[in-house]
Design a protein that fits this description.
10 strands; membrane; binds adenosine-5'-diphosphate; BCAA_Transport_ATP-bd_LivF; binds magnesium ion; single chain; Rossmann fold
């Protein structure tokens, strides 16, 4: 049994059919990337896993337990955490308050110090308000808020987007450290180099259909697939 087993997911916004029989699996300790063009359905997939979008059919099993039909906070309590594209930190609270608040309702949690070890910059900025953080610091805080809840699996939606290369480098390093410590990660990204450097396996989604599945190493050796589905 894989940690996460997704089968036959169909999701809609109103009458618009967005995801078509999406399936994927994620093993414990794996980093799995979901790649695809803008609008392909990557964020909708992550939201469907979390129950933020309710799939009309299909199955999402976490540790063998069905998540479809549960509310997103229940899915979160079961051990899946989504870091949204738009980060969603509390601007009026400081860094430490954001972290503590995120941990409050978790059945299990990391000590604050472990988050600060992962992101030393957050420790330096612990008393700064969310609104005073740089984009990179906000992203670290958004990831830190997910990690403090000791998730079995963390879903990252474009964590490197819009950030300066030097910040992306730091975040990739942090993700590498996390992965090496055994954290299971699903990564949605446009940054192909960073993604292929981190991921063990890759799915490509195209117009709401899973179009390709392979190891990251196999994908790197198939430029025609990168070209066809990602236009690179
Ligand atoms: N809240 C929404 N209401 C209606 N359509 C949406 C909504 N969110 C996304 N879509 C549409 O669903 C499709 C997939 O979007 P999304 O999953 O956000 O793609 P990606 O994350 O791969 O860029 C796109 O055509 C997008 O316009
Ligand atoms: Mg998206």
């Amino acid at each position: 049994m894989s940690l996460l087993e997704v089968e036959g997911l169909n999701s809609y916004y109103g009458d618009s059919h967005i995801l078509f029989d999406v399936g994927m699996r994620v093993e414990e300790n794996e980093v799995v990337a979901l790649l695809g063009r803008n609008g392909a359905g990557k964020s909708t997939t992550l939201k469907s896993l979390m129950g933020v979008v309710r799939p009309r059919s299909g199955s999402v099993r976490l540790g063998g337990v069905e998540m479809v039909g549960r509310k997103s906070h229940a899915v979160a309590r079961a051990g899946m955490q989504l870091v949204h594209e738009e980060r969603r930190i509390f601007g009026s609270l400081n860094v430490e308050e954001n972290l503590v608040l995120a941990g409050l309702t978790a059945p299990d949690r990391w000590p604050l110090e472990r988050v600060y070890e992962m992101f030393p910059r957050l420790k330096e900025r612990r008393t700064s308000r969310g609104t005073d953080l740089s984009g990179g610091e906000q992203q670290m805080l958004a990831i830190g808020r997910a990690l403090i809840r000791a998730p079995r699996i963390v879903l990252l939606d474009e964590p490197f987007e819009g950030l300066a290369p030097v910040i992306v480098h730091d975040l990739v390093q942090a993700c590498r450290t996390l992965a090496d410590a055994g954290q299971t990660i699903v990564l949605v990204e446009q940054n192909l180099a960073a993604t292929l450097a981190l991921a063990d396996r890759v799915y490509i989604i195209n117009n709401g259909h899973i179009a390709h599945e392979s190891t990251a190493a196999e994908l790197r050796a198939q430029p025609e697939i990168l070209h066809r589905y990602l236009g690179v």
